[in-house]
Amino acid sequence: QKEVEQNSGPLSVPEGAIASLNCTYSDRGSQSFFWYRQYSGKSPELIMSIYSNGDKEDGRFTAQLNKASQYVSLLIRDSQPSDSATYLCALVDLYSSASKIIFGSGTRLSIRP
Amino acid sequence: GAVVSQHPSRVICKSGTSVKIECRSLDFQATTMFWYRQFPKQSLMLMATSNEGSKATYEQGVEKDKFLINHASLTLSTLTVTSAHPEDSSFYICSAETSGADTQYFGPGTRLTVL
């Protein structure tokens, strides 16, 4: 079983709508979670980090964490064509002494005009 | 803040040659740096973790004699791909974090093409 699961997509969302990206993880003890955005041919860019249950908002982005259900989600409001990218869910490997990050395989998001 | 650079951004080399990639943290001291490899349409795969002044820790299946990592200072780590072959062609990305933090900041990546 993969440690971080994401639907590979592509997820197609009309411009201006809300894009909802989901991620589940297998290790119940995980504490630190991240969403990265990766444009084609570029390296990942950190969008949000979340550590506590509930919602965390930053501009058009809202991360949601539910540790009981072991899922993390990212909502993008007022989606723009520039949001089209692959979104990587990640968490810190509990069993690593060096804060290794485990990445999901990513969800491709396409915002259609 | 938290800017990480990589050099070169793109390199093409002949099979059998060695290529060195530099990763620098520009505005912070990076106690730990990570090296990833990403093949087309796949996610990032961690190759190794390097701590300043000590030997790198390699992930299972990564040849330490082929991928030489040096973390000589708190702002610089290098990855040398020795005797490169076409199957080593990939996107190599480094990341860095500071002591006590668990957020990694990524460099822009180096695209290696081995002919």
Question: Could you provide a short overview of the structure?
Answer:
The complex is a heterodimer of chains A (113) and B (115). Chain A is mostly beta strands.
Give a verbal description of the structure.
The complex is a heterodimer of chains A (113) and B (115). Chain A has strands at 4-6, 11-14, 19-25, 33-38, 45-50, 54-58, 61-66, 71-76, 85-92, 101-103, 107-112. In chain A, 33% of the residues are buried. Chain A is mainly beta and 113 residues long. In chain A, the strands form two sheets. In chain A, strands 2, 4, 5, 9, 10 and 11 form a six-stranded mixed β-sheet that branches. Chain A starts with a strand and ends with a strand. Chain B is mostly beta strands and 115 residues long. In chain B, the strands form two sheets. In chain B, strands 2, 4, 5, 6, 9, 10 and 11 form a seven-stranded mixed β-sheet that branches. Chain B has a four-stranded antiparallel β-sheet with strand order 1-3-8-7, with no helix packed on it. In chain B, β4 and β5 (45-51) form a beta hairpin. The radius of gyration of chain B is 13 Å and the shape is globular. The mean pLDDT of chain B is 92. Classes of the chains: A mainly beta (113), B mainly beta (115). The A-B interface holds A 32, 34, 36, 41-46, 49, 88, 92, 96, 98-101, 103-106 and B 32, 34, 42-44, 46, 49, 51, 57, 91, 93, 97, 101-109, 111.
